[in-house]
Amino acid sequence: MRMWWFITTLAISAFICNSPVYAYDNNPLQDICVALNDSQASVFVNGKICKDPKLATANDFYFSGLNVSGNEVPGLGFSLKTVDVNNMPGLNTLGITLVRADLEPQRIGPFHMHPRATEMITILEGTAYAGFLVPDPANFFKSRLFSKILNPGDVFVFPQGLIHFLYNMGYKKATFLFYFNSQNPGFVIIPYSIFASNPPISDDILAKGFQLNKTEIAELRKKFS
Fold first, then answer.
1. Model pTM score
2. Which of 15, 90, 167, 224 is the most exposed place for a label (fewest CB within 10 A)?
3. Mean pLDDT of the chain
4. If you write DSSP's letter for every residue of 54-101 in order, what string do you get?
5. Residues in contact with 168: Cβ distance below 8 Å, sequence separation at least 6, in sequence order
6. Can you tell me the distance from the alpha carbon of 169 to that of 177, in angstroms, rounded to the nearest whole number?
7. In the beta sheet, which residues pair with residue 87?
8. Is 199 exposed, middle or buried (0-12, 13-18, 19+ CB in 10 A)?
9. What is the structure's pLDDT at 52?
């Protein structure tokens, strides 16, 4: 009987270890995904619903126009052109996004982070100062800055979820390519997320959180609204 239990247990263990079902979830491709019991409601999958493979064409895997700059982001001094699943449907489930960015002289890509992706950048034109912050495990009130001055042909990487920035320190426009290992990296601009939230965070909370007075908080709201 003991030998029978041993063989049975060994067989079950072998099946579990070699099963294609793994004990972890795929990374989410949206910020929230609220469970819904209504089977008649619209379906939102982790990514986009797939086209019948027989209907796919070469154009689903093609994009043109990355040689010119994209749309300007008002007030921030840079323009973006994104190649993602929305304009190249063949990227669905492949876990990649490409962005061209053009940054005006003496302007900064503001402090931000991508909750779902690591970002690798290469500079094509200009000179830039890039950096990211890593929390100090010995003192969570501090962080460590990793930064480099980048020239054409240089490559730098921002690890997933870490706050980073990019500053055009030159006197002409700088052009970059950004590569993300997610089809929906997420884009959280730190100051705008805090001071321009909807509904707004109360002045009392912000004043206490940043050790400022309400007049200073009001000024920051104006800057980032």
1. 0.82
2. 15
3. 87
4. GG--GGGG----TTS--EEETTTTEEEEEESTTT-GGGTTT--EEEEE
5. 103, 104, 105, 106, 107, 108, 126, 127, 128, 174
6. 17
7. none
8. exposed
9. 86
